[in-house]
Design goal:
The chain contains 7 helices and 8 strands. It is an alpha/beta fold. The longest helix is centred in the first third of the chain and has 13 residues.
Length: about 180
């Protein structure tokens, strides 16, 4: 009982990068209730305004820790002449990673080659000809594959402010293009 009394006074911090929050938000009403119940006992911390907005819509208090600045100055940049883009999009989570957006971009920009990894084929799937599908790439070789392209395409909006694939791309000086407004 003493331990319970002590722990009940301690505020626990739950940190959401995005993926696990997306799963809970898209889950059942019971999961929503668990989130709300958890908010009474702990503080939810998120790293992106999109995640905070989703929690706010459910009536769940949260705090934002901005890892990446949400304000970017508008400048005119010389876009790389090479039209080759690499996209991290796990096949098992296609909806989470905005799979349909990749297909639309490939259709709208046929002169651009999109390298999709890790790719696992699905039945009756039609992939545009300018999308090159690569199977699983070992983590030790991911940076080597990213170095072959000058641009990294950032598709998911629920994955928080600083996912590993984005930091990897920036660490080797690649352009990082968002498909959504931060």
């Amino acid at each position: 009982r003493q331990a319970y009394r002590y722990l009940s006074k301690v505020k626990i911090v739950n940190h959401f990068m995005g993926t696990e929050l997306y799963v809970l938000i898209k889950g059942s009403p019971q999961q929503h209730r668990q989130l709300k119940r958890g908010a009474k006992l702990s503080t939810y911390v998120v790293v992106g305004y999109i995640l905070a907005d989703e929690l706010n819509e459910l009536g769940i208090k949260n705090r934002i820790v901005p890892i990446i600045s949400q304000r970017f100055e508008k400048r005119v940049y010389q876009f790389p002449g090479e039209k080759k883009v690499i996209v991290y999009l796990p096949s098992k989570c296609r909806d989470f990673y905005n799979y349909q957006y990749l297909l639309r971009l490939a259709h709208d920009f046929p002169e651009v080659t999109f390298i999709w990894f890790p790719y696992q084929p699905q039945e009756k799937e039609i992939i545009p000809p300018n999308v090159v599908c690569r199977p699983y790439i070992p983590h030790s070789e991911v940076l080597t594959e990213m170095e072959k392209c000058r641009v990294f395409l950032r598709l998911p909006i629920h994955d928080g402010g600083a996912p590993l694939s984005l930091l990897e791309a920036l660490s080797i000086g690649r352009w990082a293009i968002w498909t959504f407004e931060m």
